[in-house]
Amino acid sequence: MRHQYHPLGFEGSRIAQGFWRLQDWGWSDQETLAFIEQCLHLGVTTFDHADIYGDYRCEELFGKALMRKPILRDKIEIVTKCSILLPSEQRPEIKVHRYDYRSEHILSSVDRSLDNLQCEYIDTLLLHRPSPLMDADEVAQAFDHLFTLGKVKHFGVSNFTPQQFDLLQSRMDAPLIVNQLELSPLALQHFEDGSLDHAQQHAVTPMAWSPFSGGDLFGAQTEQALRVRNLLNEMAEDLAASVDQLVVAWLLRHPAGICPVMGSGKIERLQSAVEALQIDLSDDDWFRIWIASQGQPVP
Ligand code: NAP
């Protein structure tokens, strides 16, 4: 029997945890499992992966940890991605760093992710980056097949322009429910290029990757980073919140319903982000951060 598409769209937690850096954390399976459980304790149930993370190893590390407590599978939402080919010792057949949107690649990538994650289904599969060679009909067919087999529940994209999103959506029955984009006070491009307007218009959840610009927000010495950091430090004192919390609150304030994907393996950092859900950033404060990042007043 054909499964029905779920009408509700993205049903993840308001804040997600990313596992791009999982391998760097050097954890045992038990430590990874403990981290997963601590995330759940904080109400963070959505976990972001990609086939290529950690040189194709992070999904497997996560899967091994999850296998220690399989009952957790249905309490979490796994987001993973496909379509980047990365030359690697793990994948000697890959010769060129490029993208692959052939149906056979999408299907085999999902099978590998399911094996590595030791799961029977992926909650949301994203196309990692747009490709000039993407044939939307072929991708839509592959998605339909994966859905019918019960291997993937929802589909989305990452780093897609609104036009690329619309092209793929026009060939699909299922709604694309996510566009994962780089969004932070140091990365304003998608606030202005129509991506977030498009997400709001179509009730697509924008997931924010690198919400702290990969840590640059705390350490980079560019003029923009210094301006934003100085302001955030001042505001943190006035608002009795920490700099990281103000950044999370700034993303959460956006009407498109941004879901920040946190990148640290330190649970106290995630706890701090979750506490930011309680901060109701005023529009004055939101624009102070915007203006500091732009380096000039709004027109
Ligand atoms: P991020 O949160 O912007 O950066 C994490 C880095 O910031 C870590 O090095 C962390 O250091 C540092 N950091 C965090 N909080 C800090 C604090 N309070 N003080 C000082 N340093 C702090 O996120 P990210 O790791 O770059 O990306 C998050 C997730 O987005 C990834 O895991 C991945 O799932 C996803 N992603 C997706 C794409 C895509 O194309 N779709 C691209 C990149 C990433 P510590 O480790 O010391 O905490």
Keywords:
299 residues; alpha/beta; TIM Barrel; eight-stranded parallel beta barrel; two-stranded antiparallel sheet; 10 strands; 44% helix; globular; binds NADP nicotinamide-adenine-dinucleotide phosphate
Task: Describe the protein in words.
With 299 residues, the protein is an alpha/beta fold. It has a domain at 16-182: NADP-dependent oxidoreductase domain (TIM Barrel), CATH 3.20.20. Helices cover 44% and strands 15% of the residues. It has 14 helices and ten strands. It has helices spanning 22-25, 29-41, 53-56, 58-67, 103-117, 136-148, 162-170, 189-192, 195-201, 216-219, 223-239, 243-252, 267-275, 283-294, and strands at 16-18, 46-48, 77-82, 84-85, 98-99, 122-127, 152-158, 176-182, 205-209, 259-262. The strands form two sheets. Strands 1-2-3-6-7-8-9-10 form an eight-stranded parallel β-barrel, surrounded by four helices. Strands 4-5 form a two-stranded antiparallel ribbon. The termini are far apart. Residues 1-7 have low confidence and may be disordered. Bound molecules: NADP nicotinamide-adenine-dinucleotide phosphate. NADP nicotinamide-adenine-dinucleotide phosphate (NAP) binds next to strand 10.
Chain-wise SSE layout:
Layout lengths: L15 E3 L3 H4 L3 H13 L4 E3 L4 H4 L1 H10 L9 E6 L1 E2 L12 E2 L3 H15 L4 E6 L8 H13 L3 E7 L3 H9 L5 E7 L6 H4 L2 H7 L3 E5 L6 H4 L3 H17 L3 H10 L6 E4 L4 H9 L7 H12 L5
Helix pairs in contact: 2-4, 4-5, 5-6, 6-7, 11-14, 12-13
The protein binds NADP nicotinamide-adenine-dinucleotide phosphate.
NADP nicotinamide-adenine-dinucleotide phosphate binds next to strand 10.
